[in-house]
Amino acid sequence: MGATVPQWLSKALLNPGPAHAGLVVARLAQAGALDADMLHAGGFALTSAAFLHGEELDPSFTADEEDAVAPPLEWTAPPAGSAELVLVVEDPDAPNKVACHWLVWGLPAQRGKLLEGEVPPRVGKNAHGNSEWLLPAPPQGDEPHDYVFQLFALDQPLALMPGASREDLVEAMTGHVSAVAILTGTYAREEADEDWENWEAEDAD
User: Fold this and answer.
1) Helix (H) or strand (E) segment spanning residue 29
2) Rounded distance, CA 26 to CA 198, Å?
3) What's 76's domain CATH number?
4) Domain boundaries, position 158
5) pLDDT tens digit sequence for 31-53
6) In a domain, 193, yes or no
7) Is 192 inside a domain boundary?
């Protein structure tokens, strides 16, 4: 009944379940706006010096440490003809529905990187309605959550103002993706947080 993750995309995700169908990359694939040929097209890849695909995020990038920041990221050159790069980070394992942790666009369509804690050129609203890296804070006792970093190469620049919503971004991207690269980190909380109140459950689309 519900949407599913295409088989070719499942191979790029970690243990994809039904909730992964709500990821931006899966939604674009379901809409026919992204296919298997676009996954890592031309060797397009996203990596981090802080974790490998499938490895755990360090607490310094999560709500479990003070002064936590976004992790460093690096990517190879996108396919020729690309005009802009867009980064979307989401947790498909959040309570109730996918939680958006970061919306970034305006990245030059070339080999590049974001340093640890660097503020990107244009940032949209995360699941809390803020324009910043939303610190991972899964419920204590949960199995590790996936944090899926999705980097899209577009064939034209976006005309979105900073603070745009996830839905605004998806609408603007649809039909213009030329390649996508995926990197997934995981995280589970080890200590109780008395202030945690299911804060990933609400999405501010």
Assistant:
1) helix 24-30
2) 24
3) 3.90.280.10
4) 7-187
5) 999 999 999 999 999 999 999 99
6) no
7) no
160, 168 in Cβ contact below 8 A?
yes
**% of residues, the chain, pLDDT over 90:** 87
Distance CA 93, CA 85 (A): 25
**DSSP labels for 121-176?**
SEE---TTS-SS-----PPTTPPPEEEEEEEEEESS-----TT--HHHHHHHHTT-
Residue 180 lies in a domain: yes
Task: Determine how β-strand 46-47 pairs with β-strand 73-75.
Answer: antiparallel
The Cα–Cα gap between 111 and 45 comes to: 10
> pLDDT digits over 138-170, tens only?
999 999 999 999 999 999 999 999 999 999 999
Tokens 């990596």 correspond to 47
Q: Is residue 203 part of a domain?
A: no
Lookup: tokens for 167: 């839905």
Q: Is the pTM of this model over 0.85?
A: yes
Contacts of 41 (CB under 8 A, 6+ apart): 78, 79, 153, 178, 179, 180
